[in-house]
Specification:
Distance between the termini: 23 Å
CATH class: Mainly Beta
Number of strands: 11
Structural class: mainly beta
CATH architecture: Sandwich
Radius of gyration: 19 Å
CATH topology: Protocatechuate 3,4-Dioxygenase, subunit A
Number of domains: 1
Oligomer: single chain
Strand content: 25-35%
Number of helices: 3
Bound molecules: fe (ii) ion
């Protein structure tokens, strides 16, 4: 009885039963597929707690709403740290020594901008009772070897496994955005799914991790649901 109460309390807080052994005794009415994990990459650094992560960087705005679900129950999880980071319109990340990759060999060929001490296009928040956070960021530009993407890391309590993945931009929107404004001088993204160093030609991965987007004001509104496992 005590264990049951504790389980109920913790289930209320974290959206799932605390005791792993209970999982084998209870079949949930529904479950949802755990979100695919992709590499964290080399550019995760400290980030501020904030919803508007743009930090003054020019770009096309993206209001990005993310919802975190417990994949076992397919229910919202409150209090999960959700962190995002992405490059700017020119393919530059904040707070790192950016690296130049050779287009042909995709080997490191030099150094780009040193942005250490800045924090544009990075931020984290904690999910509300609906498992949601909302960020205001920019559509990311591109850099050698990759399709445009937004890195996401979700970290929940104790027994949960942190989840790192990357979210992609619909290809038609990418082409429109890269044709003008802060993106124009960098040009269209020459990297295809086949040449992307992480997804390596796997269209299904890209489809599963592409943000649903629609136009909103001068930019876009996007939604994505992340299902985590304990
Ligand atoms: Fe990246």
């Amino acid at each position: 009885m005590i264990a049951g109460s504790l389980g109920a309390i913790l289930a209320g807080k974290f959206g799932r039963l605390y005791a792993a052994s209970n999982d084998g005794l209870f079949v949930p009415p529904q479950s949802c597929k755990e979100t695919l994990r992709l590499t964290q990459g080399p550019y995760l650094t400290e980030s501020p707690l904030r919803s508007d992560v743009r930090g003054g960087r020019e770009g096309v705005p993206l209001r990005l709403r993310l919802q975190v679900l417990d994949h076992y129950y397919c229910s919202p999880v409150e209090g999960v740290l959700v962190e995002i980071w992405s490059c700017d319109a020119q393919g530059i990340y904040s707070n790192v020594q950016n690296i130049i990759f050779d287009y042909e060999t995709t080997e490191r060929s030099g150094f780009a901008e040193d942005t250490r001490g800045t924090d544009f296009l990075r931020g984290h928040q904690f999910t509300d009772a609906n498992g949601e956070v909302e960020f205001l960021t920019n559509i990311p530009g591109w850099y050698a070897g990759r399709l445009p993407h937004i890195h996401v890391r979700t970290v929940a309590a104790r027994e949960w496994t942190a989840l790192d993945t990357q979210l992609f931009i619909p290809r038609d929107i990418e082409r429109r955005v890269f044709a003008s404004g802060a993106y124009a001088s960098h040009g269209q993204n020459p990297w295809t799914i086949e040449r992307d160093l992480v997804v390596k030609g796997n269209q299904e991965i890209v489809d599963e991790l592409t943000i649903s987007m629609e136009e909103e004001g001068e930019g876009f509104a996007g939604d994505f649901t992340i299902a985590m496992t304990g």
